[in-house]
Fold:
Amino acid sequence: MKKNGRFPGGDTGHLIAMLLMMVVWSVDSFWLNWTTFASEVISAPVCLTIAIPIWILAGILFKTSQITTTDSRNPDGLIRTGLFKSIRQPVFWAMMLGCLGLVLTSLSLAALSVWLLIIYFNDWQICWYILPEQYQR
Structure:
């Protein structure tokens, strides 16, 4: 099931999930407006005040993880320096923070649901395929 310590198809699954997230967010935020009723209560400046720092953090995570991956590797193939000391998948979390910023701009509950499903998918991969002996008891 595992290939090089990774879930087979995990990257493809993340790409599909991200595309689904973007489609659901775009359609619900700009066309259908089915689940964006919270944006009538909370104003856009408040949402942007929260979303912009999240996007900045996502950019920092992404940039820092790119620098780390090109600079240092251990003989066992794991990166244990920089951001990778505390977060195993900083690029994924940068992507998720960017999407959370999008969800906060329109307050789309449909996009929030997809966002939560993507996090669940990532957790499911880790618990059942990458670290099975610890979680499948």
